[in-house]
Amino acid sequence: MNSELYLDANATSPVLPAAAEAAMAAMQACFGNPSSSHACGLRAKTLLEETRARARRVLGAGAGRVLFTSGATEGIQTAVLSALCAVRERRRRGEACGELLLVGATEHKAVPESLTHWNRLLGTNLELRMLPVDADGRHRLDLLRELAPRAAFVCTMAANNETGVVSDLDGIARVLAESGSPALWMVDCVQALGKLPLGLASTRIDYAPFSGHKLYAPKGIGLLYVREGAPYTPLMCGGGQEAGQRSGTENMAGIAALGAVLGALEEGGTFRTHAQLRASRERIAAALREAFPGLVFNVPLEHALPTTLNFSVPGVSSKEMLDLFDAAGVRVSAGSACSAAKAAPSYVLDAMGVPPERSASAVRLSFGPLADDAFVDAACARIQHCGRALAQTRPLARLQQLESGGASGWLLSDEAGAYFIAIDPPAALAPRIAADLHARGARLLACFDTGHGHGGADALGGIVGVTPGWPGGAQRVRLGGGETVDTVDALALGQDVLARSGDAYLLGRPENGVLAGEAVRFVFGAAAPDAALEGALCCHRIGEPAVSRPGADPLPDEGIDLDATSAAAYLSAHPDALLVDVREPHEHAAGAAQVRGRMAQPVPLSQLAGQAAQWLREPRPLVFVCRSGNRSARAARLLRRLGHAQAWHVAGGLALAG
């Protein structure tokens, strides 16, 4: 599983070898400025116009304008500026032009953001109105019919980048025509090139932006189609390049590379046909269904691009799925790459009415039209491998952290993993916890919240049939020793007990019915245990860190970062050092972690608290690693705060370590 399998083509694509060669030739042999009048410039000018002519043929542009841009965002900005300037001029002339900016609810954020920006700057003061979509992700034509007569500018997309849903462009055009709408119309065609038939001159479409890097050209090059007669205002003025329509010296390397891709489209034979792509998608869909029982596709496949699948696995979050696939060397995403850093549900799926729990589990898998049978074979095999890894029963952990939404809960078990107690379980994780217990054939003795709680105990208890709350009266133990001894309620958990003392819950091993302070290993619920419990670790409900050690001298966590080279050198210089993989068990099962040939021992971050107690008793150098470096940094910081002096992590994680 060491090879990388790229299934995120809707975000970007590798560069076609012929495109890379064309770009290199443009930089080395045909490097002239196409505005120069000498022979070197004339050769560059010829290349420029040959590529434009090829683009016209591929797009079916007819007599419309075809401009080279830096990408889709610039094309969108130019189209929006042109349309709004035209609306402003029509108003000045007293012509009917509409008062709505109508944009599809599932459009890429570049569109509404551009509309808002230019609407404000130009002072057009048009009303931005979202055009809803139905449950299949297609525009509501009935509502469009109501709004079209008032629309000044309509923005839709040919195919959605997150779901692959193909718009009913013919239906939209028909509504605009039948309603007599004065609106100009932009169609985002970024996901259409190479996947859908194009014949732009025969449509009502006024503006159509494209981006090269979505179809095997480099980043930084795109196209904008403008219908003949459609109003146009340059976004960039200066030296008058592109016949004064888009100033700035042309990106000749990008144009040459795009020309090679367009040539491959025009000539045929390089890319898979639509029918072949549909067959490939069906094979991948079948592999997903087999690998992940209960999987749900979030859009009907018959309405989607033949290269895109958007699905959810109930009870498994998007992040867990992405981590799983990434561990197996499969690159997928949860949606738009532009929104990947924002921990928010997909507005696209929300607009379609997809339930929040499904939206929170959504994964987008997309491939390009270069994908051949061997690639699809490899993808299906890797998907099956991921399914087996996820299905594996989690290894036993006496103490496991349950984390969701910034809150921490805890799952305690006996030595055999037959009996469990849940403390402050997050409600969102209740189905997953219940399923895990059922898979083990384990029994939940109790589930309760230590504070105001987050509703998890009620949710989990309702699923497994356990009355939430501290059961009380199970047995009694004496706390401490000496002259003052308190007798309190306790629950037996194997050889340990969980004893309740006021607002604190103490986990430890009693002797002769007495739980001495030094025998308490973990404390739950209490903000700060008394001095007799300083050897225990406090497990908190909310906040970072989730675990603290009263009386410990926290060590600064500056300098905990090691790159892959320095980590390998440190491990070599310290034979007793332990390389620890803090990814979850299914990630480790999908692909074991190693740094420069050194295999890591799996200790998931969710099980770190229990293992930390042993590492503090028997200190040894620790180097943590994970997928990206985020979880390993948390682990190293936690150990430092607990007083462990030799805790480090591999910055950048396995993504950079290789």
List keywords for this structure.
658 residues; Aspartate Aminotransferase, domain 2; Aspartate Aminotransferase, domain 1; Metallo-beta-lactamase, Chain A; 4 domains; eight-stranded mixed sheet; 20% strand
3D architecture notes:
The protein has 658 residues and is of the alpha/beta class. It has four domains: 17-263, Aspartate Aminotransferase, domain 2, CATH 3.40.640.10; 273-348 and 356-391, Alpha-Beta Complex (Aspartate Aminotransferase, domain 1), CATH 3.90.1150.10; 399-548, Metallo-beta-lactamase, Chain A (4-Layer Sandwich), CATH 3.60.15; 561-657, Oxidized Rhodanese, domain 1. The chain is 33% helix and 20% strand. The chain contains 19 helices and 31 strands. It has an eight-stranded mixed beta sheet, with no helix packed on it. Strands 25-31-30-26-29 form a five-stranded parallel beta sheet. A hairpin with a 6-residue loop joins strand 17 and strand 18. Helix 13 packs parallel to helix 14 (456-464). The longest helix has 21 residues, at 39-59.
